[in-house]
Design goal:
The protein has 8 helices and 11 strands. By secondary structure, it is of the alpha+beta class.
Length: 271
């Protein structure tokens, strides 16, 4: 799975690598450091691991978010040779170049489309239209439909599913998985994308991932790497002890408080 997050540095004035960018957490443009993450999920074990990440710094290295995802995919397939079946992405990464590249690796992808993405479900009988304006027959609601996305090669078609996430939100999920014909199964597959959101939330809340205020890019980079290592260790300990990462972190604070109450480092006396 691939997704990005922004480490909020709104209180900073002169930190290197900080740039204005949109934050999905704040739902606004903020000053921060962008991080593109790659997470590996094992559905049968219901476990996930952070296996790669890149700092988003287009002015420094000239790489956009899609470039980072492209490089991480190449590294996973050709260098690390990590076995995986499917790639899950957010709407922002559902571009023609990346989707075709994943297919060239002989991998499957699942990704949502924006509501205004131009598609055709009539085999060229009608002009392209917005994906959220398509009509759906009852069998198509349950099993999806074949469509062509504007800009893709002439005979390139994918399967589209209308997934009701909530009463106020509908996702339009496309996949090149020719064996997939169930909207319910597609919904379950896409549900794994929240694992990467869990990574970003836990690492920010428990490791101080975005709290470092030093100015040098090198120190920021080292801090981010160390914070992710702490998260990896916490997740491993959580699996071994049957606790959550929050229980482990708060347990450390409880142990420290008990120790200080018994043997305080600073002796406080009434005047």
């Amino acid at each position: 799975m691939f997704d990005d997050t922004v480490l909020d540095k709104s209180a900073s004035l002169a930190i290197e690598r900080v740039r204005r960018q949109y934050s999905g957490n704040a739902h606004a443009v903020v000053k921060g450091i962008g991080v593109v993450s790659c997470v590996y999920v094992n559905p049968s074990l219901d476990q996930f691991w952070l296996i790669d990440y890149r700092l988003y710094d287009p002015t420094g290295d000239g790489h956009g978010k899609l470039d980072h995802v492209h490089e991480m995919l190449i590294n996973r397939v050709h260098q690390k040779r990590l076995p995986f079946y499917a790639v899950l992405m957010d709407t922002w990464y559902a571009t023609k170049d990346l989707m075709v590249f994943i297919e060239s690796l002989r991998k499957v992808y699942y990704c949502p489309l924006k509501d205004n993405r131009q598609v055709d479900d009539s085999d060229g009988q009608r002009p392209y239209g917005r994906v959220d304006a398509l009509s759906w027959r009852e069998p198509e609601v349950a099993h999806g439909k074949r469509i062509k996305i504007k800009g893709f090669p002439k005979d390139h078609k994918v399967r589209l599913f209308r997934v009701e996430v909530s009463t106020h939100r509908t996702d339009w999920i496309v996949t090149n998985d020719s064996t997939q014909n169930s909207t319910k199964a597609t919904h379950e597959v896409c549900g794994f994308r929240w694992k990467i959101e869990q990574l970003h939330r836990e690492s920010k809340q428990l490791t101080g991932l975005e709290r470092r205020q030093c100015r040098k890019a090198r120190i920021q980079r080292n801090h981010i790497g160390c914070a992710f290592l702490v998260w990896v260790r916490l997740k491993e300990l959580a699996r071994q002890t049957g606790q959550t990462v929050y229980q482990l972190k708060h347990g450390l604070l409880d142990d420290y408080l008990i120790q200080q109450l018994k043997n305080p480092s600073l002796n406080m006396r009434f005047a």
